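Hello forum,

I keep getting stuck at the same step: I have a sequence, I want structure tokens, and every attempt I make locally crashes halfway through. Rather than fight my setup again tonight, could one of you with a working pipeline run this one for me? It's a single chain of 250 residues.
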Amino acid sequence: MLYTNIKDLNILYIEDDGVIAESFVSILTRLGANVTHVTTYKEAAQKFDLGYNNFDLIITDIRLPDGDSGLDFARFVRAFDKDKTIVVTTAYAETDYLLDAIEYDVDKYFIKPFKESLFFEYLDDVAQKIKEKRNPPKNTQKVAESVTPTSKDTILLQDGIVYSYTGKCFIKDEEEIALTSQEIHLIELLLENMSKIVPYEDIQSSFTKKNGKTISIDTLRTVAKNIRKKTTHSILTTLSNIGYKMSPVN
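Reply #2:
Ran it on my machine without issues. Output:
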């Protein structure tokens, strides 16, 4: 596979292992990517502050030598940019790391050792989506004909996103965003309790009453992450280890 989409991709790469970094930087450079390589959280934060709009993608190891982790950097990035693609690589598969990765809306989590082909296939796919977002094809946007943002059953949320109770979908820029049954249930539960934190326990109880099945915290976090990926990170507010809330636009 040629991985042609990676060409001209702007990558911020945080990795303190010199051997691994040299190998990946070499491959990415040969594929035509523009790679900024740093080894610490501090260096990464400085580079990001100076030109975060120039980076399409961030790849970071979890364990960094200056004490902070790659997940700390992911949280730092999300404070500025809710949509930046973040990929984490690590030799550690502890549950706490995985849960934090979900909480900080990390896009992909690769556990070392991993197949390089899978890694670069993922980057190539991401690069294609980034380029399509930069230059969307004309006349391909699906217009939502059945529901409009002025319907009585809709509510305006963050970043111009509308939720339709009739369509059971989000609407943004006249395009319907399809949702799964779990996503719909979580959204409507939070909307019923608008601007209030709904504890994880209450959310789990609601799912149990509706479906007769329990939902784990891990699954719940994945549902929330997918809602954010389909819309915007700010669509949900997380109170760590407590619950979620949704708020209307004031």
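Confidence is low (pLDDT under 50) at residues 139-151. If your local run keeps crashing, start a new thread with the error log.
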